[in-house]
Fold this sequence. Notes:
Nonspecific Lipid-transfer Protein, Chain A, 8 helices
Amino acid sequence: xxxxxxxPPEEGGDRSVTGLTPRHLAAARLGLGRLPLVVLQPMVDIxxxxxxxxxxxxxxxLAELGPKTVLIEATDLPVAFLLRADPGxxxxxxxxxxxxxxxxxxxxxxLETLVGLLEGRIDGDAAFFTRDLSVSGDTSAxxxxxxxxxxxxxxxxxxxxxxxxPLAKPALRLIDRAGGVVETLGAGPHRRPAxxxxxxxxxxxxxxxxxxxxx
Length: 215
């Protein structure tokens, strides 16, 4: 399903299987879990736009999705991300995990696993067989996402720095301290079961999180 590429974690510091430290991940879980969607969505829009400009090679492969959508669901977060390919580039919509959300395919795992997959630092096939990652729905849509990420050389820390600009260093220090507080308080990740996928949408149509369907 996923390629067996694997980029090793960076040396130095206490690292997870991603380029982020455990403190970064703890702070990300806290922030993404507390922010309302109306605040989170503009942030994700800006980050997606900057990432697309930094990595224009992502646009054409993702365009092969056509009308298909892929729900990316972190099982330790109360938010999921619905990916679709708009004419101007990829579009990521923040939604609350729900079995009512219809998507062509679903990719589910912990935040750490999904970030590791995004960065190419973990073996997606191995994560699938060890059940750290679950995939359901349209296999072709999942493969398009896999092939797009394969060799893209994404690095979440670098993307965060690009989004924040001159504020990146103080922001990352603040995130690290916040993550340290979370770890000290023992508020570790709580993994919930992935939401069950509903019956597939009618052929050629996908249903949006608001309940309406789009051609």
